[in-house]
């Protein structure tokens, strides 16, 4: 069994990975954990159904002997440099980074799923909206899509548990008519939306879909969990609604398209929930809304899928 080292298993993404690994004995046979918090104390948690200690990552040598490393960190700290040093000296060892960490981690090639054509052994999981787009485009491949637009709406949970708690406090302050003094990324997000920097999203889209013209926007929302992707896809020739529906219904990665899909219903699911697809009058433009649990799709589930293809 592969020796897998999980960095920061107590984050939201880390806990999702552990929950999924509990049902995958082929990967969960030899796990070890480290945290990258600034303090030097061991963290105590229930991991894999048993109490476990999570020691701090003190040096790159702590990762020696690992067959793969999963990085679930949601905050950049000095200890993450030890993972960078290990990556530099072990280019052949699979390293899969979840979430969005700044600096060198943002330069890793993005991945949206498993496959034998991974561009490198060190990868970063793409934004959940792009992972959803990849699944939709893959299902519609036989209909020859040529262009796509994705409007990504993301929840505060992308910033970890602390931002989820901040949102709750912001909401309470706004309901009371008080001034909101604690911000999330310099913004008040409770009961509102804020457009965000989408440069990285468009860069990753170009890398993930070299044969498809893609434009993307990004908006931060006042939702606790769940990602939304408003998709528009153009086709070379006219398509019919039944062809689109058949493509989605034949693909086990999607829930049954519905008139009313709810973001909260996506929590804990590894499926992509879709609204009923709508076509333009000429049949060459498709509009559809996709909703996912970004802690799984574009998160832990996608990371494990990518890891399996690398091992």
Number of domains: 2
What would CATH call the architecture of the largest domain? 2-Layer Sandwich
Q: Classify the fold: give the CATH topology of the largest domain.
A: Dihydrodipicolinate Reductase, domain 2
* Biggest pleated-sheet summary: 7 strands, mixed
The average pLDDT value, as a whole number, equals 94
> CATH superfamily membership of the largest domain, which one?
Dihydrodipicolinate Reductase, domain 2
Instruction: Bin the helical content.
Output: 25-40%
Distance between the termini: 10 Å
Radius of gyration over C-alpha positions, nearest whole angstrom: 20 Å
What is the percentage of strand-forming residues? 15-25%
List low-confidence stretches.
none
Provide the CATH top-level class of the largest domain.
Alpha Beta
**Helix/sheet category:** alpha/beta
Structure commentary:
- The chain is of the alpha/beta class and 311 residues long.
- It has 2 domains: 3-126 and 299-310, 3-Layer(aba) Sandwich (Rossmann fold), CATH 3.40.50; 130-292, 2-Layer Sandwich (Dihydrodipicolinate Reductase, domain 2).
- Helix content is 26%, strand content 24%.
- It contains 8 helices and 15 strands.
- The chain has helices spanning 12-21, 25-28, 80-89, 128-139, 161-175, 199-208, 241-249, 300-310; strands at residues 3-7, 30-34, 43-47, 50-54, 68-71, 95-97, 110-111, 122-125, 145-154, 193-195, 213-221, 227-235, 273-274, 278-279, 285-292.
- Strands 9, 10, 11, 12, 13, 14 and 15 form a 7-stranded mixed sheet that branches. The protein has a 6-stranded parallel sheet with strand order 2-1-5-6-8-7. Strands 3-4 form a two-stranded antiparallel ribbon.
- A hairpin with a 2-residue loop joins strand 3 (43-47) and strand 4.
- Helix 1 (12-21) crosses helix 8 (300-310).
- The longest helix has 15 residues, at 161-175.
- The protein is globular, with a radius of gyration of 20 Å.
């Amino acid at each position: 069994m592969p020796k897998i080292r999980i960095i920061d298993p107590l984050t939201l993404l880390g806990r999702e990975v552990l929950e999924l690994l509990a049902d995958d004995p082929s990967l969960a046979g030899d796990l070890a954990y480290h945290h990258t918090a600034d303090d030097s104390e061991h963290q105590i948690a229930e991991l894999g159904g048993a109490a476990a200690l999570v020691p701090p990552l003190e040096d790159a040598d702590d990762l020696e002997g690992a067959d793969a490393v999963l990085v679930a960190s949601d905050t950049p700290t000095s200890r993450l440099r030890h993972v960078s040093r290990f990556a530099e000296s072990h280019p052949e060892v699979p390293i899969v980074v979840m979430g969005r960490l700044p600096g060198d981690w943002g330069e890793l090639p993005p991945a949206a799923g498993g496959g034998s054509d991974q561009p490198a052994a060190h990868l970063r999981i793409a934004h959940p909206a792009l992972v959803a787009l990849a699944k939709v485009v893959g299902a519609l491949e036989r209909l020859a899509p040529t262009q796509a637009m994705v409007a990504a709406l993301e929840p505060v949970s992308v910033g970890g548990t602390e931002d989820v708690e901040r949102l709750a406090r912001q909401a309470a302050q706004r309901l009371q008519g008080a001034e909101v003094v604690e911000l999330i990324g310099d913004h008040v997000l409770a009961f509102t939306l804020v457009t965000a920097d989408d440069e990285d999203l468009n860069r990753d889209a170009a890398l993930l879909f070299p044969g498809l013209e893609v434009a993307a926007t990004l908006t931060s929302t006042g939702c606790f969990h769940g990602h939304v992707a408003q998709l528009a896809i153009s086709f070379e020739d006219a398509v019919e609604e039944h062809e689109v529906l058949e493509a989605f219904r034949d693909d086990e990665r999607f829930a049954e398209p519905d008139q009313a899909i709810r973001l909260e219903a996506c929590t804990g699911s590894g499926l992509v929930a879709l609204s009923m697809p709508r076509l333009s009058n000429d049949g060459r433009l498709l509009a559809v809304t996709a909703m996912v649990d970004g802690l799984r799709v574009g998160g832990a589930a996608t990371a494990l899928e990518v890891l399996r293809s690398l091992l």
